[in-house]
Design brief:
The complex is a heterodimer. By secondary structure, chain A is α/β, with parallel strands linked by helices. Chain A contains 19 helices and ten strands. Chain A has a four-stranded parallel beta sheet with strand order 2-1-3-4. Chain B has 16 helices and 21 strands. In chain B, the strands form five sheets. Chain B has a seven-stranded antiparallel beta sheet. The termini of chain B are far apart. The chains are: A alpha/beta, B alpha+beta. At the A-B interface, helix 3, helix 4, helix 5 and strand 7 of A face helix 2, helix 4 and helix 10 of B.
Chain lengths: 432, 525
């Protein structure tokens, strides 16, 4: 069974007016021909089947039995990073929510025994067997901890570390822990009781397996009695805040705990004077808004009802337009670091270009993921002349790093926790 | 796929395998274009193309059209696909998506830009604003391609000063349906020179121009120069998070003056008088419904607030005339123009209020598609160029007619559309907009179609210009005889340029397909 009922969104697919706004940067914010696009798959492949407006036509044809599954059709729907840009653009004007249909297509692909892609199945198998996406024993999940990071047994704040920072880019977890300590935040971790958040499982249409992750993690969080869950990974953050309530048929406000990204938490600590940056970081940087921290992170409100004439939802359904994404906390933090020059790219905040890693794209369509990252790196260099591109999601950093290494770029990429660590102690610089 | 394997291989050899496809999913995405796609006339008639190709250069376009000629493959050029006329209506069409051809060059000194067919207005405007220049974003939105819109009509808020798009057309490069290349204006003398539109002898731009034009029925224009205009774009500040994004206008250089009236006649008289003074960047009377579209947070919010406001609006019939003033030569020009406007309004009457120095609609028309917001579909019952007086007469008659079909059309008050001066008062543009839901109840579409046909008959009775209907729907069967059988002459002209009838058939005679409705389309006696 698909989680999303296409019949609720059939009206959207039927009433897409093919204005193509879904593949362009907001026309007000568009500042050049070169950086005018916002949909990576559309920009990379060109055909309309790789943009939301074309995918809506494909969805209608699939739902009506006019189009059959094929490897190419699967490619057309799985090359989307589900970055949410099309939703933001369409909700600005026409008022449709294409992402609901994009997600439905993947769920239907799984239901019909066609999806997800083989690479996604491999990740799903890892998760099923080992509770993390890399297939490493989950007992090792807490091994990123060093003696200078000090979690406690019981605290109001739970740090949800995520697979990437637990097993691959452990320096992000270590920096996060030190920053929590430095800001006077007592925190705990779940250790091996933390399972993969399931972001990718949900995004590739494996709803049941994603729900299993949700149920386990929600129970573990409940048992920990945490009041606040902090994530340093934008994907984990969005999963906890948006996807779990969606999977469990409730609203974010009904979770029983608050979900914060590390940038939101530390910004609060900065504002109330508990976090101070004292060590200068003399560098010119630009900031990459992770899609799942920015435009995709607005709280989920459970809705049940019907759709009537003019596409009106009864009762009214709250739309997630990207307006209230977490754009400012990271900027507040970076701007508070002495010596750091922060320059904006043309495509920023709700209009940011996706790094290309999300939605299962990096696993199944590596070439597209790296192409998308390369586009962003070009923008960072050309528009801002930056020395480093800072992100707040380990998957952005991982994707950028691969391109930077392959292309022997002088530009660096850092997670925001790493640069903040440099600013709280001179040793932090060496650690990074 | 019924396109011959041999032809497909030839196409593949031109663009490479990456840019041509006969995959069913890719083809499905090119079945239905935007505007009007749900009109019964087109629904069910739109077919999946046989193949889709993305050329990257004029040379590739030329080679593709030669293949089409050789194998008699019907083809459809596509810009942004925002219009239903680019939907395939005959089998085994080759859809030629031109988005890769986003060539753009701006001659700052001589104030023109050369565009490829993949360049959209927003891209052109973004590059222009950096250079102290501007183009006019059309009312249909700046996601429209520059060339496609110039070949269409191209009406937008700044036409008061800039004129509509087809009149801004300069030198161009045009690949005829058989693959021959024609260059017009100064380009015919020098491939690099696009400055002049006029060449020697008859001006072939006349073949390309026209309200709603050929819609791909006359080959492919692969490069076109368009006039640009001075505009202090560098001083605009981009601001806001979606959906509330806009330009902060520099107060020393730009200003809105909004003037309120309780009758359209008073507003029109003021527009007349202001045009004579030749000041302002734009001059328009817009319906209040647009404010509600713009401010609504959701469809539900719009319908609730609109229904609440409507009784009073019907009672008081307010109209807002908006004037955009721009100090092109500096703050003193702005001061002067404001004085002139206030003097004129002081003389003719009207309640003048200064608007917030913010724009999301006129400079880059970012919110054009909000007109789809209330219903799902918008169509233009009238698309009328004439004198202001004639426009007012037609607008009032159209409002009456619209009421007859309301519901299913969305309820409104007064003149449900916009009136705008073009070319500093030499022409008035009137567009009457209707909003409806094309999908929930089939009868709504039927009623809309019936109203549309009746609207054409109304045009003829009032001797009003049938701009849109003349080349966009089934109505030319009615209009043709009244306009010298223009539609048959159009067909004769096409026979010369496209004897094989492969350029977006059945253009220009789309209406030959008729509509599958029991409506008598014969001229009324």
């Amino acid at each position: 069974m698909t989680l999303i009922d296409f019949e609720t969104y059939r009206w959207d697919a039927q009433n897409c007016v093919r204005c193509s706004n879904c593949r362009w940067v907001d026309f007000i914010w568009m500042a050049s021909l070169q950086f005018s696009k916002i949909c990576p798959s559309s920009a990379r492949y060109g055909f309309d089947a790789y943009a939301a407006h074309g995918r809506l036509e494909i969805a209608l044809a699939l739902a009506n039995g006019e189009l059959e599954w094929s490897p190419k059709v699967l490619e057309e729907i799985y090359t989307c990073t589900l970055c949410g840009a099309c939703d933001v653009k369409c909700l600005r004007n026409v008022g449709l929510e294409p992402t609901q249909t994009l997600e439905w297509m993947r769920q239907k692909a799984v239901d019909d025994g066609q999806g997800p892609m083989p690479e996604h199945k491999a990740v799903a198998e890892n998760i099923a067997n080992n509770r993390n996406r890399y297939g490493t024993p989950n007992d090792n999940r807490g091994k990123w901890l060093r003696s200078d990071a000090r979690p406690v047994q019981k605290a109001d704040v739970l740090y949800f570390v995520g697979c990437n920072s637990s097993f691959k880019q452990q320096q992000i977890a270590q920096a996060t822990a030190k920053l929590l300590n430095a800001s006077g935040t007592e925190f705990m971790i779940l250790g091996e009781q933390e399972w993969c958040c399931g972001n990718q499982l949900y995004n590739v249409g494996l709803v049941d397996q994603a729900r299993e992750m949700a149920e386990h993690n929600l129970k573990a969080i409940e048992e920990s009695r945490a009041k606040t869950v902090v994530a340093s990974c934008a994907e984990c953050y969005q999963t906890l805040k948006v996807i779990y309530p969606k999977l469990m048929g409730k609203s974010t406000t009904d979770l029983g705990f608050e979900v914060l990204h590390i940038t939101e938490h530390l910004d609060q600590q900065l504002q109330n004077g508990k976090l101070k940056f004292t060590a200068p970081v003399n560098m010119r940087v630009t900031y990459q808004d992770p899609c799942r921290l920015g435009r995709m992170s607005e709280p989920w409100t459970h809705w049940e009802g019907k759709r009537g004439k003019y596409g009106i939802f009864d009762p009214p359904k709250p739309r997630r337009k990207g307006t209230y994404g977490a754009y400012d906390p990271a900027r507040n933090l970076l701007n508070a670091i002495p010596g750091l020059q922060v320059e904006e790219m043309e495509r920023r905040k709700d209009q940011a270009w996706c790094c290309g890693a999300s939605g299962g794209v990096r696993d199944a369509f590596k070439e597209l993921a790296l192409w998308s990252a390369r586009e962003r790196i070009e923008e960072a260099k050309e528009v801002t002349g930056a020395e480093a591109i800072i992100s707040a999601c380990p998957y952005c950093k991982e994707n950028f790093t691969e391109v930077i290494t392959a292309d022997k770029e002088r530009l660096q990429t850092l997670d925001i926790t790493e640069i903040m660590l440099q600013a709280i102690s001179p040793e932090g610089k060496e650690a990074c | 796929m019924a396109i011959l394997k041999e032809a497909y291989q030839a196409l593949e050899s031109i663009v490479g395998p990456e840019f041509v496809s006969d995959d069913p999913g890719i083809r499905e995405a090119y079945r239905k274009g935007g505007y009007g796609k749900n009109r019964p006339a087109l629904e069910g008639q739109a077919l999946r193309p046989g193949c889709v190709i993305l050329p990257g250069s004029t040379k590739e376009v030329q080679q593709i059209l030669k293949i089409c000629t050789q194998y008699k493959i019907p083809f459809i050029p596509i810009g942004c696909f925002g219009i239903a006329t680019q939907s395939p209506k005959v089998p085994d069409v080759l859809s030629i998506d031109l988005k890769r051809m986003d060539y753009l060059e701006i001659d700052e000194k001589n104030m023109y830009a050369i565009c490829g067919p993949g360049v959209i207005y927003a891209q052109l405007q973004a590059e222009c604003l950096k250079k102290g220049l501007a183009t006019e974003g059309p009312g249909c939105g700046v996601g429209a391609t520059v060339i496609g819109n110039h070949l269409n009509a191209g009406v937008g808020p700044l036409e008061y000063r800039m004129g509509w798009a087809q009149r801004r057309m300069l030198g161009l490069e045009w690949v005829l349906p058989d693959g021959d290349i024609v260059t017009l204006g100064s380009t015919s003398l020098d491939d690099e020179d696009y400055f002049w539109g006029e060449g020697l002898g008859p001006d072939l731009r006349g073949v390309l121009r026209g309200t709603f034009g050929w819609q791909g029925g006359m080959g492919i224009v692969t490069k076109m120069a368009t006039k640009l205009f001075p505009f202090p774009g560098q001083d605009l500040e981009r601001t806001g998070i979606s959906p509330r994004t806009g330009f902060n206008m520099p107060p020393h250089l730009m200003k809105w003056l909004n003037v309120f009236y309780n009758s359209i006649e008073e507003a029109a008289f003021a527009m007349h008088e202001l045009s004579k003074a030749q000041v302002g960047m734009a001059l328009m009377t817009a319906p209040f419904s647009w404010r509600y579209f713009s401010r609504a947070t959701s469809k539900e919010d719009f319908h609730e607030s609109w229904q609440e406001a409507l009784p009073e609006l019907k009672e008081t019939t307010p109209y807002m005339m908006r004037i955009m003033l721009v100090g092109l030569a500096g703050p003193k020009q702005l001061e002067y123009e404001e004085k002139v406007v206030r003097e004129v309004i002081g003389r003719v009457g009207g309640d003048v209020r200064e608007g917030r120095p913010f724009d999301e609609s006129w400079i880059n028309n970012a919110d054009a598609h909000r007109i789809m917001f209330p219903g799902g579909m918008e169509t233009s019952m009238k698309f009328h160029f004439d004198s202001l007086d004639a426009s007012i007469e037609l607008a009032k008659a159209a409002a009456e007619l619209k009421r007859k079909y309301t519901p299913p059309l969305l309820d409104d008050y007064g003149i449900p559309g916009w009136l705008q001066m073009g070319d500093f008062g030499h022409v008035a543009f009137c567009e009457i907009l209707v909003y409806f839901d094309p999908t929930t109840d089939p009868n709504d579409c039927y009623q809309h179609e019936v109203g549309f046909v009746e609207s054409v008959r109304q045009d003829l009775e009032l001797k009003a210009y049938c701009g849109l209907q003349g080349s966009y729907g089934p109505e030319p069967q009615i209009i043709g005889p009244a306009y010298n059988n223009y539609h048959l002459k159009e067909k004769e002209l096409q026979d010369i340029f496209d004897p094989l009838h492969i350029s977006n058939p059945p253009r220009p005679l789309d209406y030959a397909y008729g509509i599958d409705l029991d409506i008598d389309l014969s001229p009324q006696k």
